[in-house]
Amino acid sequence: MFIIKNIFQKLGVFVEDNTVPIIMIALLLIIISFQGAQLIGMASGTDTFVEKSSKLYQDYDHLYLNLFGTESIVVMVEGSDVTKPELLKALDRAYLSVQNIPGVVEVTSPSTVIKEVNYQMTGRSTIPDDPQTIDGIIDSSMPSALMPDNTHAIMSVVLEGTSSDSTQEEILRETETSIELANFPADYNIIVTGNPAFSIAMNEEMNTSMGILLLLSILLMVVVLYLVFKHVRWRLLPLPIVLVGIIFTFGAMGFLNIPMSMVSMSAFPVLIGLGIDYAIQFHNRIEEELERGETDEEAVIDTIKHTGPAVLIALIITALGFFSLFTSTVPMIQDFGKLLMIGIVMCFISSLFLGVTVLYGFDKISKWNILGRFGLKKNSAHHETHTHVIIDEEHEPDFLEKALKGMSTFSMRNPILILSIAGLLCIGGLYADNLVGIQTDTQTFVPQDMPALLDLQHMGEILGGSDQLNLIIKTDDNSDPELLKWIDEFSAHEVAGRSHIQDSSSIVDLVKEANSGKIPDSSDEVQAIYDQLPEMQKDAYLNGNSIIMLNLNIGNAMSELGLEGIESLSNVVQEDLQWMAPPPGVHVTITGHSMVYVEVISALTSGRVFMTMLGIVLVFAGLLVIYRDILKALTPVLTMIIVVGWSGGLMYYTGMEYTPMTATLGALILGVGSEYAILMMERYFEEREKGAGPEEAMQEASVKIGKAIVTSGLTTVFGFSALIASPFSITSNFGVITVMDVILALLATFVIFPPIIVTLDKYREKRRHFHQSHHNSGSSGSNILKSIQEAITQ
To answer: Using one digit for the tens of pLDDT, what is the confidence trace for 368-380?
Structure first.
């Protein structure tokens, strides 16, 4: 620790000697960070849930998306009668415009079906003016997918499944423009929806929500600082200092290509709650040093020398708790961990260099009375401390300090009762944690009144669900009649025997349709039919001569069955593949959008447990390295383990579900909550070194540092509580449970920590006395023996 303080002392001298260059460098970094922030991309797709390196995702990406995958922008027209000629002509004008948009693979519309049939009947490729002719064509030839009833017409704009987000947005905007220019009759409602439209709208909502969360978090911090930091000058200064750290984080996010997702956008209110404490500590200490009568230069050097190492230790322990997030297989959780790690470092750097420098400058200016006329002169009243700063020893304890002392005293005097109840609640919570449900349907994460979501749900009600299990069939010859017959039999078996498989589609349907309902007996005949099929139809089911696609439609399985149900259904299909095995040499892989999300289940169950366990080990190891004392390393960790158990029980009894965000709670509790126990422990051993006994030292620590810890906890609670206002349920639920967990961590610091550390410290003291008495008795015996030997010699 002496070496570290020596390093920070030299750093303090550097800061004091280079105030202007530090401010200039900070301004330059802010400008660079704004440039980096322009590079931040939005992410809301499948790859935010599943690691791209996993076999499941690679099958989905390489075999499905690249070869067969498409996305569709759906234009849904609804009104009293969509069979009217003027409506169909407007739909045809939209069709002709949309099909010319770059990037559009195919457009299907009721108007094209009617024009094709009319051309066969009359030789004219137009929409008939006679309603009866139109009705006849619709009754005989119109697919239900394009016109499910007389009040709805569907135009589907098909894009490549691998289209970038920017390409999809360009096509969506062009489609919307084409719809406006098509001059639809006024009494019809036109809805542009589909998965691309929903994803784009969700990204826009995330951007808007991000700004609201940051603004609310800033306002809450203003309230906290104004209320609890009133004993220093420039009480709001820590806020702009931490915001500079946030700006640095935004810049790093862009340069490191970390996308903004539903999870990562929540990192910034969390960072404001954590980072403000770093700025407060430096601010408090420099004010304290100045109050003691030190010069400005001495105050800067002593502040960095003494506060820098303490804040750095807190940062390291917090980072060790967050580090376990990198073990998650869910990419958006990894990104969340990256942002938290980068953010706390940036906030520390901003507080250490910029915060101290600005305070140093403000104090210099205030002594010139330039700011004095604005009421910013130094207050002659005693500066009470905050968070990690020593509180005046002589003042009369207030109600909060008395209450904290009473809580710790009661818990120390009843250790068996307190620890037994806490332990039982922890064990019960850990058990209940296994019963907490898992929610991974992205539609439930977004604002439920979002127009794009309502449109998508409305489309599902009209057209039915579109979830699929996609079976990629690898073969040496995709025209083998035996293989096609097997596909036909297997598809019929799955649709008939599995209630959630509604229908199937494959190349077999097209072959049978072209051959009077039968599959030919020779490969040559099958190949001849393939050659006659339009390329667009073939490409949907065939790739080269070796791959065939079989789609099993499972409707609204994601919302009806959930991921666990889909996983069970896929397992049943896998068993059926073994029972109704394909011809020799044929390999079948089950993939698709729904299947990829199945991997999230294991990531959020076994993955989150491993994250928490690793966080515990890392925090313990970090404390052991720093303190080289098993008691000092073990006590904070034991306290936080109890809080982790309580948190699991709280989630179960409040009916919350695990999401990619709440799965990070274990790591967050360890990272944030350990700091409170460490602060209490530091003060406890400081009192012990002064000669106080265990109970007396704990009482003194509760009074002298307790109020500061509660204040520090409140700043964190207020920072986290901004998340509750998010329109995204995944974020607001995370905000609720994290606020509860921080409160639990504070409670554990004053109720659970005291009996643990006092009991273990007493036990260690007894063992030390025991070994010392044995050593002394052994020394006495050897002295007697030595005297006898000397007497005999004489």
So the answer is: 654 444 444 444 3
